[in-house]
Amino acid sequence: MAEPAQNLLAAISRRDVSELNNAVRLFETQVMLDAGVSAYGGRWLAGVSKAHVPGLAQMIQIESLLGEMRGGGDALSIWVAQCWAESDGHQKLVHLAEAMIGAWRDLQTEQAIRFACALATSLAVIQTKVASRMMSRIESLINPPKAVNPAINLAASWVDVGCILTQLSPSAQSLLEERLANSERRWEWSSPEASNALEELRPHLSAPSKASRLFRTIVWEDAWPMGDVQGLDDHFLGQPASAPALTSLPPPLVQPLRKKPEPVRLLILVTLLLAMTLVYNAVNAQRQAGMQRPVSSARMPKPTSHAAPFGTQAMRQKVS
User: Fold this and answer.
1) Which end of the chain is more exposed for a tag (fewer CB within 10 A), N or C?
2) Predicted confidence (pLDDT) at residue 74 exceeds the cutoff of 50
């Protein structure tokens, strides 16, 4: 591992993108595909990427992440997946999930199972079909490690939620997604839109299910007519106003639901933009008035040096 690591560090120091890409490929081939050292190599590469080259995560290939998990590691996989989720709208996570599904027979380590649970949780609502296939692989395990049982249970609950949401109308789906993403609030269900969503949801929770725990964090007992709550998860009946906290080991790579901006925050943002526009107009008016003065009374500004091209500056930031 020493030589590929030294080549990678040298490429980072020289800030050459082409050389860096070649060094990453060499490291992947000689380290990440070797099950004997892939876990250690992944942990080292994740540390280097975080400290020096955050953009390096975009160069990592899926096969390297599979190699790390085969070797009993997950540090690089978690770091890269988080970066992918922030940069491309989860599409690479879908490709990663499909690759894990295809190679599942070789991914029986505790780290791989734990990572698969986090991946299924993250994709449960936004890519339900892929998450369901991943969950099927996870549930096919005969004797999974006890340490991953909480993560398996949470992933299964979110996938069930995703499957239920796909059967609802777009308006009900959107409303429930927003409320699940903000489950810490005590939601009212008296509006026509909320009542309609609740009516659509009720048949899917007529019997205990894995999804009931998550839905009960937003639909409290007083929102259901008497008698309709008997089939639901009794653990959540009569709970206080604050919704129970949900945890996973590890937490999802990304939020399973897309949070929407709150109206108050949106109003503040619009107000700030309007204020900035007024200030700009006022300053511009003063400048226009100043330009009408005689040239002799104004002092010409000194010429300034040209800034570096945007591309060069962006490249430096990527490899710094």
Assistant:
1) C
2) yes
